[in-house]
């Protein structure tokens, strides 16, 4: 069954407290020079082929449900 991935991340100008907490923990554990931003990943399984119509439907789902587009951006990745 084909799968399409939607990655959702906070926009660069939006504070990311979870990412900052992970970055701080990494530094305390000795990992230097790393900075983390935390997001979400949605895996959408598709019945049949991944057609342009199916991708448009997934884009609409990402726009209306997966991401808050005021503070988050998203990208749709096909395999």
Automatic annotation (TrEMBL):
Q: What is the E.C. number?
A: 6.3.5.3
Q: What taxonomic lineage is listed for the species of origin?
A: Bacteria, Bacillati, Actinomycetota, Actinomycetes, Propionibacteriales
Q: Which InterPro entries match?
A: PurS, PurS-like_sf
One function term, GO molecular function aspect: ATP binding
Subunit structure of this chain's protein: Part of the FGAM synthase complex composed of 1 PurL, 1 PurQ and 2 PurS subunits.
Where, per UniProt, does this protein localize? Cytoplasm
Gene Ontology cellular component annotations, sorted alphabetically? cytoplasm
Which family does the UniProt entry place this protein in?
Answer: Belongs to the PurS family.
The UniProt entry's GO biological process terms, in alphabetical order, are: 'de novo' IMP biosynthetic process
Q: Pfam family example for this protein?
A: PurS
Q: What is its main location?
A: cytoplasm
Q: Which pathway does this chain act in?
A: Purine metabolism; IMP biosynthesis via de novo pathway; 5-amino-1-(5-phospho-D-ribosyl)imidazole from N(2)-formyl-N(1)-(5-phospho-D-ribosyl)glycinamide: step 1/2
HAMAP family registered for this protein in UniProt: PurS
Q: Which NCBIfam families match?
A: phosphoribosylformylglycinamidine synthase subunit PurS, PRK05974.1
The record describes the protein's role as: Part of the phosphoribosylformylglycinamidine synthase complex involved in the purines biosynthetic pathway. Catalyzes the ATP-dependent conversion of formylglycinamide ribonucleotide (FGAR) and glutamine to yield formylglycinamidine ribonucleotide (FGAM) and glutamate. The FGAM synthase complex is composed of three subunits. PurQ produces an ammonia molecule by converting glutamine to glutamate. PurL transfers the ammonia molecule to FGAR to form FGAM in an ATP-dependent manner.
Determine the domain of life of the protein's source: Bacteria
What are the UniProt keywords, alphabetically? ATP-binding, Cytoplasm, Ligase, Nucleotide-binding, Purine biosynthesis
Catalytic function, reaction form:
N(2)-formyl-N(1)-(5-phospho-beta-D-ribosyl)glycinamide + L-glutamine + ATP + H2O = 2-formamido-N(1)-(5-O-phospho-beta-D-ribosyl)acetamidine + L-glutamate + ADP + phosphate + H(+)
Full protein name: Phosphoribosylformylglycinamidine synthase subunit PurS
